[in-house]
Specification:
By secondary structure, this protein is mostly helical. The chain contains eight helices and no strands.
């Protein structure tokens, strides 16, 4: 179904206002946002449906890049998706900041990407990049030698058994 026709159907369902219609409208708009993740107008419409459904975190998620947004909804989104990486992934933005059609959206994407980069750097700096301890390496090597020895003894036993069976 073409985008404009889908938007018309979603608008009719929103107009009806009952829960089943709102859920159908939400599903249509989710499909459109999935197909056209760079269209901010579709994100705004989806945020409006979530607002009608009373889901502030999702409304904040989809209105995060909008020119006008409710800061309480954005705060709910940030509480639901606690880390910048989680927020960036949840927004399902695929074209980078250059794909944003407004300066506000570009600025917000750059800021969020910067926060996500800082989070990754902090996680990497905490990660232990040293090799395992010497004692651990010796134990692993000893275990491998024992396993290899068992394999060789088993293979020799099998060959001898087969030889005796044929000559026997």
């Amino acid at each position: 179904m073409p985008v404009e026709q889908t938007l018309r159907k979603a608008a009719e369902e929103i107009e009806r206002g009952d829960l089943a219609s709102l859920l159908r409208a939400r599903q249509r708009l989710v499909g459109l946002v999935t197909s056209y993740p760079g269209r901010l107008d579709l994100r705004d419409r989806l945020a409006a449906v979530y607002r009608l459904l009373g889901d502030a975190a999702q409304a904040g998620r989809w209105s995060y890049l909008s020119e006008v947004r409710d800061e309480a909804e954005v705060a709910a989104f940030e509480r639901a998706y606690r880390t910048p990486l989680a927020r960036l992934e949840a927004m399902n933005w695929v074209s980078g900041e250059s794909g944003a059609t407004t300066q506000t959206a570009r600025d917000r994407l750059v800021a969020l990407q910067g926060e996500a980069d800082a989070q990754l750097r902090a996680e990497l700096s905490v990660a232990d990049d040293r090799d395992s301890s010497w004692g651990t390496n010796v134990l692993v090597l000893l275990g491998l030698v024992i396993v290899l020895l068992c394999f060789v003894v088993g293979a020799v036993t099998l060959v001898m058994w087969v030889y005796r069976w044929f000559t026997g």
